[in-house]
Every structure is written in C-alpha cells, then in structure tokens.
Specification:
The chain has 122 residues and is an alpha+beta fold. 52% of the residues lie in helices and 18% in strands. It has one domain: GMP Synthetase, Chain A, domain 3 (2-Layer Sandwich), CATH 3.30.300.
Amino acid sequence: MAKTAYKRASRVADQIRMEVAEIIMRKTKDPRVASVTVTDVKLTDDLRLARIFVTTGADGQHEAEALAGLAQAGGFIRAELGRRLHLRYTPELIFQKDVSGPRGDRILALLEQVEAKDTPRD
C-alpha cells in the first residue's frame, strides 16, 4: 500500500493560510484590507518565503489600495504569525492578487461553448 507523501511545506502553507486569514480578519485595523480573502499560499521548500494569494470583492482602484494596505501591514502580520507558528524562521510574506478565479471561469465558459457546438441537434 503506497503512502501518500505530503511535503512539510504544503502542510505549513495550509496553516499559514488559515492563520493569515484569521489575523487579517480579527487583528488588522486597516479598513483597506477588510474585504480581503486569502485564497492560497505557496511556500518555498526551505520555508523562508510565502507567497500569499488574495482576492478582493472590489474593482481595480480599491483592489490596489487593499494590496497596498496588506504590504504596509505585512510586518505586523508576519510578527503575529511568528507568535502563532512554532517555526525556526518566520517566512517572509509577499501578497499577490489571485488571478486563478477569473481565469478558471473563462476556461469553463470556453469549454461550455465547445460542448454546445459538439452536441448533436435533433
């Protein structure tokens, strides 16, 4: 029976995702980051750098302000994360806009168009 191998980086990334979402929701006081949702975290294998992917329910200008607010609060979020996680090094945090949602929606729409063309009509 083959054992499923989970890398430590993926387990820590899941923990970071949950903790950062909690910190943003409960601890930050910046109104620019109030509508931010943490969607994914990619962590390097050495656990030194975490890319945190976020989405906002806002348009372009408000989205840019939210990312700027996250960048400004990054030190606070990292310090709070260091208190919550028991790691030798707290990873450096880089906040990025998650573009996978709209891209996935577009791919699904294209697949539905192809399927509609391929279905036989009576």
